[in-house]
Amino acid sequence: MTAKIEKRYSWDHESGILVSIALAIAGFMLEMIKVNPVNGILRWPDTLIVGVSLFLLIFLISIIGYKKNIFNWLRSPSATFSSILLFTFFAILIGIIPQHTDTDSALIKGLRLNSILNTWYFMFSTIYLLFILGTVTFYKIMKFKSTKISFIINHLGLWFVVLGMSIGSGDRTELFMSVDEEQNFIWYAYDENQEVVEVPFAIKLNDFKLTEYPPKIALIQNESQKIVGKGINAPQLALRGSVVEFEKYRLKVLQVLEDVVSVNDTFRKINMPGAVYACQIEIHDKISEAHSIEWLTTGNRTFPAEFKKLDNEHSLVLLNPQVKRYESIVQFHTPDGKQGNSTIEVNKPLELNGWKIYQNSYDSNLGKWSPVSTLQLVYDPWKKLVYIGFLMILAGSFLMIVQRRKN
Amino acid sequence: MTWIQFPTIAFISILIWLISSLFFVISKTKIRQTFSLIGIYLGATVLITFLIFFWIELDRPPMRTMGETRLWYSVFLSLIGIILFHVIKNKGLLIFNLFLASVFLLINVFKPEIHDKTLMPALQSPWFIPHVTVYMIAYATFGTALILFFIELYKKKRQGHIVDLNSIDRIVYIAYALLTTGILFGAFWANEAWGNYWAWDPKETWALLTWLGYISYIHIRKMHPKKIDAALTIMIISFIVLHICWFGISYLPSAGNSIHVYSGN
Fold it and tell me: Mind listing the pLDDT tens digit for each residue in A326-343?
């Protein structure tokens, strides 16, 4: 089989490369004359119509091509490699040039290289890939052999993925809903342009909970005020009883106090914004054998952090703690009568009437006392097709190993 | 056990591997070979034992920082070398794998990290362990395939026989399936954590590029089986792309946007 292909097409990759270059140039020109990008502007049901049409067109080309033995070029190695190459080329650009950020470069602006996903040239490369992938797959389906199962599953799966991700991107809706412990049910959210959008469910925040790791003790450079962040001098958790070594110093953590304020040389526990962590540390200079016991505190807008200058070069500080987990305890109901309670947490979204509701953020100034929580709402009808494709590629990749062994 | 004990452990493993490998090369009898193999197993066991205790001590999977992933890479390189030795009986491959594993251990010794017990909320997921493990096995398998490629080329130069890419292709197929699994586990995870299975984050883009690279290798082997040089070129490029994805990302202009950076404080 492979020998036959090789004979028919030889090592002729020029034709494919030419097609790729032509597509890229055409796309670049459309960008330069500022024609609006079509990608992502299509909305349901246009996306469905375009998707089905593309499928039928490729199907038709494959059937006619198969019977009349024309359009062979679409199945040539030249077409395969050039379509992979063109797509890879743009993927490399996406991987190198920062996307969705402003730039002064005229070249990047002119060709919109900072927004490649929404350009004509990227769309051309995707359609080219879909055509080549599609015809190759249909041909194999029509000439079905059991040894080609992995081929078909892999390529058809990838076809679904590319189609779902490209065309489907226009139907993906992402909104942000801000809920407050003080508020009642909310049934609207904001899109990326801060426009209000009504959503098919209502949510009420009963409680927002946030837990933190203990704060970290860090070494900073006096001059630059920068944390010595790397290697063995990297910041370490202040755990009661633990021993930390920085440079020539040996530090023993004697006490860690949570949610306190400093009042007349002592610490008092409070349960409200403004509270800090305090940490008592025994500092031992291993060279001079000097000992001292010091208090460090984290800082915020109300209370500045208390730090300890160790020597001319370094000081010791207590960093604001890292967040361990945060969650929103909510109540919801929908127009079709569903209602209930749920806890929405990072990595544990809530699914409701085709939407996925994610824990996104909170008022970071207030941290664990934040009364508000921001939820991310996502509706992505094409995800199912993409996931079917994913599972096919996954199954196909393992089937390849098995089929190869049999051959 | 923590990073503090790590240099000792690493030197023990490397020393055992070094002695066993030397013995392995010069030994002609079956019994001596078995003894050197036991030594090689022992070196890997020492490392795995360290990993287990390290995991317990950290109280989270040791898979977050670059140093931690390098540790897994070393372990899997040695294990794959051992497994493949039993399948294709290639001594050189096993020794090179151990050599590469030692190099990655030494990087960790000379670029020490402290143990950091924190794990950000996005990483607290049942996908975390399978995603990273599968990825590291895939990386180690691709590394093994490249080493075997060089061994084949060397053999061809010395003995003049035709390069046999059959076992290399087999290894690449396995690594490809693992890489695909790793990427898709990542996508399923991202869909739970960040609201999107694919967001063209720099790390994701370079993972896709790695995948495209090895896909190209598989295609060129199918369509032009005699183009050995082209296959080798693609494999080398893909392996470089793999490393850009693994730790080169931070040096790219696009890195500022990545939400995949976990090692900094």
Answer: 999 999 999 999 999 999
**B257 Cβ under 8 Å from any chain A Cβ:** yes
Same domain? For B49 and B170 the reply is no
Residue A69 sits at the chain B interface (C-beta within 8 Å)? no
| Partner-chain contact B224 A174, CB within 8 Å | no
Q: What whole-number distance in Å separates Cα of residue A154 and Cα of residue A390? A: 9
Mean pLDDT of the residues in chain A: 89
Q: How far is CA A80 from CA A153, A162, A167, B122, B223, in A?
A: 17, 15, 21, 38, 10
Q: Is the same domain home to A31 and A168? A: yes
Whether B48 and B103 map to the same domain: the answer is yes
Same domain, B126 and B240: yes
CB neighbour burial string for A24-61, b if at least 16 within 10 angstroms, e if fewer: beebbebbeeeeebebbebeeeebeebbeebeeebeeb
List the beta bridge partners of residue A342: A330
Spatial distance between the Cα atoms of B45 and B55, rounded to a whole number of angstroms:
15
B92 and B135, same domain (yes or no): no
- What tens digit of pLDDT does each residue of B23-73 get? 998 888 888 889 999 999 999 999 999 999 999 988 889 988 888 999 999
In a domain? residue B218: yes
Domain count, chain B: 2
Q: Report if residue A293 sits inside a domain.
A: yes
Best mutation site among B127, B137, B170, B191 for testing chain A: the one with the most A CBs within 10 Å?
B191
Residue B218 belongs to domain with CATH number: 1.20.120
ipTM (interface pTM): 0.89
Q: Number of helices and strands (H, E) in chain A?
A: 8, 17
Q: What is the DSSP letter of A303?
A: S
A263 shares its domain with A140: no
Q: How far is CA B212 from CA A322, A374, B27, B172, B241, in A?
A: 37, 37, 42, 13, 10
Flag whether residue A395 sits within 8 Å of chain B, measured between CB atoms. no
Q: CB distance A95–B209 less than 8 Å?
A: yes
**Residue A385 touches chain B, beta carbons under 8 Å:** no
User: In this structure, are A261 and A343 located in the same domain?
Assistant: no
Measured in degrees and rounded to the nearest 5, phi and psi for residue A252 equal -115, 130
Do residues B135 and B49 both lie within one domain?
no
The closest CB to that of A390, out of B124, B187, B206, belongs to B187
Q: Is the CB of A88 inside 8 Å of chain B's CB atoms? A: yes
Nearest to B124 among A347, A394, A397 (CB): A347
Domain co-membership, A290 together with A361: no
**Minimum CA–CA partner of A75 in chain B:** B223
Do residues A161 and A77 share a domain? Answer: yes
Task: Note whether A227 contacts B: Cβ–Cβ < 8 A.
Answer: yes
A386 belongs to a structural domain: no
DSSP-derived letter for residue A171 is G
* Contact (CB<8Å) A77/B219: yes
Number of domains in chain A: 3
For residues B127 and B213, membership in a common domain is answered with: yes
Identify which of A79, A69, A61, A76 has the alpha carbon closest to the alpha carbon of residue A18.
A79
Per-residue pLDDT reduced to its tens digit, A205-243: 999 999 999 999 999 999 988 888 777 788 889 999 989
Q: Does residue B234 lie in a domain region?
A: yes
* Entry pTM: 0.89
Of B177, B198, B252, the CB nearest to A96: B252
Contacts of A104 in chain B (CB under 8 A): none
